[in-house]
């Protein structure tokens, strides 16, 4: 996954396998088999040449071990140990259970998908379908009041996926249930209320938009970045926007995948040719050129599931069964968690002191200070890291075109983590 603080990928329609007719943020949380299929499709797009594993993984394609094993026996249980952090499963404490029992007003009655937290911390940017409003808006966490930013022209077909960094919200809006390649990129400045179009899909001579690797744009400070197709043969370009000036430049083109921000760097997976394994590349916002990767990212191959906040880094193995974590940019990531057979990772999200991850069974929240982690949804769901918070969306309780999606707001700094008593490095 390749966005700052958020790991989100294609999500199939409820009770179906992945379908290009459904927006990536809508509906993948219902069926475990469908989530696994999405993950497999994503991996196949990133690397189809039998990728090697990062250090510490078993080599030889994507076949996993028969059962779960510790990521590293005897490793330190905290970043200060110098050997890495292994996650250890616990039961949620009372403070976390209280938050999970309480949903944001209105989210239990309508489809409200979080895009990020506004700068004041009291509102959430959302893509919503409610009886009174459909479009992108600001949702009050206290009252559930929804304020319009941009309504959908056709609520039956229009969809949005985006990211926020406090003041700025950036999203890609699509207009069809049969293709996500035709899109417009919008930027909203909450300080001034200004809405600006900063990009759009590129069409060929036949008027059809070139295929793009779908992913929400990445946002950091006053910059946004995204990937979009621009020609035949699967060629893609990385676009970088200065949100204050509106200037948009192309910083890379070729066989590239969606970018993320890592501090002062724009980072993306890239391969030399279609069907070959990806490695990461980095562009410096200050030097305005390609630069060397930090140590934490150098071993990443064959995956676009990567999150970073400029200090901490986490990513998934190409076969989506191992989670790697590094507490520092100058420290290579080490295995932190291994999934049992039959379970796959499906997403990552990061917030201060915490890492959220979704599997084909449920969504979990981990402390990156102690290594303790716990399940935060009964089944499926997903998490969005934004600012100092983690937004957790439950799976819908019933099938519907626009199902209600209960939303929970977690502040990792306020969570008391119980001590680990389970075997470290393994999901039970």
Brief summary of the model shown:
This protein has a single domain, classed as Methylamine Dehydrogenase, Chain H. Helices cover 5% and strands 36% of the residues.
Average pLDDT taken over every residue: 82
CATH superfamily: Prolyl oligopeptidase, N-terminal domain
Q: What about the largest sheet?
A: 8 strands, antiparallel
CATH topology: Methylamine Dehydrogenase, Chain H
CATH class category name: Mainly Beta
Q: How much beta, percentage-wise?
A: 35-45%
Helix and strand arrangement:
Blueprint: H1 32-46, E1 88-89, H2 94-100, E2 111-117, E3 123-129, E4 134-140, E5 146-151, E6 159-165, E7 168-174, E8 183-189, E9 194-200, E10 218-220, E11 223-229, E12 236-242, E13 248-256, E14 260-262, E15 265-271, E16 279-284, E17 289-291, E18 306-308, E19 313-316, E20 322-326, E21 334-338, E22 345-351, E23 354-359, E24 363-367, E25 372-375, E26 382-386, E27 389-393, E28 407-410
Parallel strand pairs: 1-25
Antiparallel strand pairs: 2-3, 3-4, 4-5, 6-7, 7-8, 8-9, 10-11, 11-12, 12-13, 13-15, 14-15, 15-16, 16-17, 18-19, 19-20, 20-21, 22-23, 23-24, 24-25, 26-27, 27-28
